[in-house]
UniProtKB/TrEMBL annotation:
UniProt cross-references to InterPro entries, sorted A to Z: NAD(P)-bd_dom_sf (IPR036291), SDR_fam (IPR002347)
Pfam families from the UniProt entry: adh_short (PF00106)
UniProt name for this protein: Retinol dehydrogenase 13
UniProt-recorded Gene Ontology molecular function terms: oxidoreductase activity
Keywords noted in UniProt: Oxidoreductase
Organism: Parnassius mnemosyne
Length: 295
């Protein structure tokens, strides 16, 4: 669907959710372009297999893995700490990880699990890694969203409630938060030579996105995905364009789909809304004084 001749030799990229599906395809594509790629997810066995496979098919031995569970703020902090202390640069951060149909419960941090896995964990990870991204500039942040964001809502008094949202609505709320976070992030990065853009993978075949669902709903969803979904390899190419194409060097705050700029959510242009989300998100993940580089 799209291609770029852009190379990433000497660059370091992190891909969350990189052990399977879209993340695996994106990581494989970036490795082919010469980047050192770090894939991240919570299953170490799958990570090892994915690393070995990417090394084999690309011939790039500079593929590593680190365990990351976005459903645990402790795990996110540990991952960020290890990355910051690795002595390496960070040129590309692909925030791809997410999950649909998670149990309607609170995480170990007392947060709505779906919101934490699909937004809060990524917000904290990105915030903690921003000093390294700035030091490595020019660098790029690529945030995955979904078409469901257009029906999302943000109610800060209730966004961690249990029994309030359906699986689809919970995903929609989280992806709306991701999109507005990206808009505010891009504004705060002006003049730093760090860019932040979103991509919508639409519907993708052969991924683990439906693994947490069950029964008739899963069967119907799977049939729909099989009928209209695009190959995950194509989405990997789309992410690679955002990560490596020279034409994207100075483009930030945009939303992409099918390798073209797409209509963004209208709230992304409301700075009062995006600023409030930023501050509320910092409260939720309980940033310490040492972590909050903004202060």
């Amino acid at each position: 669907m799209c291609n770029t001749q852009g190379r990433l030799d000497g660059k370091v990229a992190i891909v969350t959710g990189g052990s399977s599906g879209i993340g695996f395809e994106a990581a494989k594509n970036l490795a082919r372009r010469g980047a050192k790629v770090v894939i991240a997810s919570r299953n170490e066995t799958k990570l090892i297999r994915a690393r070995n496979r990417i090394q084999y098919v690309t011939g790039n031995v500079n593929v590593a893995y680190r365990v990351l569970d976005l459903g645990s703020l402790k795990s996110v902090r540990s991952f960020a700490h290890d990355t910051l202390n690795s002595g390496e640069r960070l040129d590309v951060l692909v925030n791809n990880a997410g999950a649909l149909g998670l149990p309607d419960r609170l995480s170990e941090d007392g947060l709505n699990l779906a919101m934490q896995v699909n937004y809060f964990g990524t917000f904290l990870l990105t915030f903690l890694l921003l000093p390294l991204l700035k030091a490595s500039a020019p660098s790029r942040i690529i945030n995955g969203v979904a078409v469901a964001m257009y029906i999302g809502q943000l109610d800060y008094d209730h966004w961690n409630d249990i029994g309030r949202y359906s699986p689809v609505q919970a995903m929609a709320n989280a992806k709306l938060a991701m999109d507005l976070f990206n808009a505010e992030l891009s504004r705060r990065l002006e003049g730093t030579d760090v860019t932040a853009n979103t991509y919508d993978p639409y519907i993708v075949k052969d991924t683990d996105i439906l693994n947490n669902m069950e029964g008739l709903l899963k069967d119907i969803s799977q049939l729909f995905v099989d009928l209209v979904g695009q190959p995950k390899e194509d989405v990997g190419k789309q992410i690679a364009v955002l990560a490596a194409d020279p034409k994207m060097a100075n483009i930030s705050g945009r939303h992409y789909k099918f390798c073209h700029e797409w209509i963004n959510h209208w709230l992304a242009y409301d700075t009062e809304v995006t600023q409030q989300l930023w501050e509320e998100s910092k409260k939720v993940v309980r940033l310490t004084e040492d972590e909050d580089w903004e202060t």
